[in-house]
Specification:
alpha+beta, Outer Surface Protein A, domain 3, 4-stranded antiparallel sheet, 3-stranded antiparallel sheet, 38% strand
Length: 178
């Protein structure tokens, strides 16, 4: 049995869950999320807990068991509390600005980088160099953060680039003179 999959999921008071076979719809104060669950995974609700179980005990089904338990748990956390990712721009002249539904990044290129902000993600820029992203969907939030970061990954010599908050860059020693 999956160690993660057998743990019950606690449902907060402000979260509504609807089971319409094979979909699960989760509503909270920050949004609505849906997931389609395969037939080999069973989801049951007991008072204020959700229990995820599997019919089969093969290795692939056990891994799906843990995966879908984690996905449902992340959805419940997302609609009740939201997820947050902070990005820090390190480098001379690196800055960000939010304009309507665009985030405009100046990253040392000859042109500003413009990215469309997805409608379910909120973006806040603090002091031009810190970008706070918030969303109820953890997957889309991580994907958007990685797309922003892909424009300037941190480099090991000077440490310039777009970093996640509290990320440590392993620095390399540059050339040494004779």
């Amino acid at each position: 049995m999956s160690r993660i999959g057998k743990l019950p999921i606690k449902i907060p008071e402000n979260v509504d869950i609807n089971f319409i076979d094979p979909k699960i719809t989760i509503k909270g104060k920050f949004g609505i999320l849906q997931i389609k669950v395969p037939k080999v995974i069973q989801v049951k609700q007991d008072s204020n807990f959700i229990i995820v179980s599997s019919k089969d005990k093969t290795r692939s089904v056990r891994s799906l068991h843990g995966l879908y338990r984690t996905l449902i748990n992340n959805m419940i956390i997302g609609v009740s509390e939201q997820f947050q990712v902070s990005l820090i721009l390190q480098g001379v002249g690196y800055r960000a600005v939010v304009q309507d539904n665009l985030i405009v990044l100046n990253l040392g290129y000859s042109h500003p980088v413009k990215m469309i902000i997805p409608k379910n993600i909120s973006v806040e820029v603090i002091q031009n160099t810190t970008i706070n992203l918030r969303a109820c969907d953890k997957e889309q939030l991580g994907l958007f953060a990685s797309n922003i970061r892909a424009w300037r990954k941190p480099e090991p010599y000077k440490g310039k680039g777009i970093l996640y908050k509290n990320e440590q860059i392993i620095r390399k020693v540059g050339k040494s003179g004779k």
